[in-house]
Amino acid sequence: MKFNKWTLGLAAVGVVSLASAAQAEETANTVLTALSSTTLSGYVDTSLQWNFGSGNENTPPYSFGGPSKADGFNLNVVQISLEKPLDESEWAAGYRVDLWAGPDANRLFTQSIDASAEADFAIRQAYVNLRMPVRNGLDVKVGVFDTIIGYESVASPNNPNFTRSYGQTIEPQTHTGVLLSYRFNELVSVAAGVANTWGPVINSRAHGPNLDGNTKAESFKTYMASVAVTAPESWGFLAGSTVYGGIVSGFAEGPGENVTSYYAGTTLATPWNNLRLGAAWDYLDVHNIDFGPEDGVAWAAALYASFQATEKLSLHGRAEFLDDQAGVFYNPFGPLFGTGYRVWAFTATAQYDLWQNVLSRVELRWDHSDSSAKVFGGTDEPDAKNSWMLIGNIVYKF
């Protein structure tokens, strides 16, 4: 083994031994080899938001929104990602860590069951990724990972619109468990997994400890499965279109002992290369809700359209409907008791890529209460059935 002149000089005066120097250099080389294929990426997500009107204490209850973002400037979240992706070898291994800092980190609710307080920090994902040589290759995630269902991502920059849909809001966000993924061919892929709970609290358990204090049998876990069908190149203009379905069922800290989430969605290519369409349907069955022996149901449906107008300009639209009979969004004993909470929402987003690595977009959103109660507004406007907001979103990706 070759040593540099400084190591040889220190060895000559007895400060270090060549054996220890050799061991240290070997350890350093091992660390560098392990890190050489690790990538660092992430983004800084900011926004400015104007809610029309002067009473904005009661804003639409979609995830990662709320009154604290109304009528002002916002740092939403900073994501830092470390990843060593799987290579093509039969026994490939890797990992991924997504760390969140900022107000949205608290809204992710992944703080572990041992956390004493919110601190603008959360682990979004942290898992070991493994591949086993089972025919086409069986991929395994172990740790904390995003849920397997849904049209939209937890990460806003990955979505066509800045604000999240009601469908995304009633879905699970993350799980702590094991997920297996397998692709049969270019057409069909499946995934199945087992987790501690429906989510999202890390290391929470149905048998305890958990935030609700409810207990189940130690064998009570959350189970999930999904299937995706992707159109191959031979399908012409439909190539790349996907039909997806999934289910997640298990213990959830909240209004019921356990819940079941169903999801079906599709993204469709069209004969026009610059136009893509999408649809999503989410159904949440809350079993044995606290205010009665019956199950409660909340469901949401949404339609999406994305149009690439120019090389830099793209337009995105979303129309959705929510019907919440389970009291997911509002106290069922409140003004909506017996009537449910129903909302129509329309979102229009224009994205213009002016700077390199920067996502810049402007969004107009309208939410309309279709319930007997007027749920929007606040002290100055307590009887609002409509909520309008204009949002600017700037994200730097690295």
End-to-end Cα distance, whole Å, is 39 Å
Structural class: mainly beta
Strand order of the largest sheet: 1-2-3-4-5-6-7-8-9-10-11-12-13-14-15-16
Find the count of extended strands (DSSP E, 2+ residues). 16
The fraction of residues assigned to DSSP E strands is 35-45%
Q: Topology as H/E string?
A: HHEEEHEEHEEEEEEEEEEE
- What is the general shape? globular
**Please, what is the average pLDDT?**
88
The CATH superfamily of the largest domain bears the name Porin
Largest sheet: 16 strands, antiparallel, barrel
Identify low-pLDDT runs. none
Assign a percent range to the helix content: under 10%
Q: How many helical elements?
A: 4
Q: Explain this structure to me?
A:
With 398 residues, the protein is mainly β. It folds into two domains: 1-36, no CATH class; 37-397, Porin (Beta Barrel), CATH 2.40.160. 9% of the residues lie in helices and 45% in strands. The chain has helices at 5-12, 18-35, 103-108, 166-169; strands spanning 39-51, 72-84, 93-101, 121-132, 138-146, 174-183, 188-195, 222-230, 242-251, 258-269, 275-287, 296-308, 313-324, 341-352, 358-369, 386-397. A 16-stranded antiparallel β-barrel has the order 1-2-3-4-5-6-7-8-9-10-11-12-13-14-15-16. The chain is globular and about 70 Å long. It starts with a helix and ends with a strand. The model has no long low-confidence stretch (mean pLDDT 88).
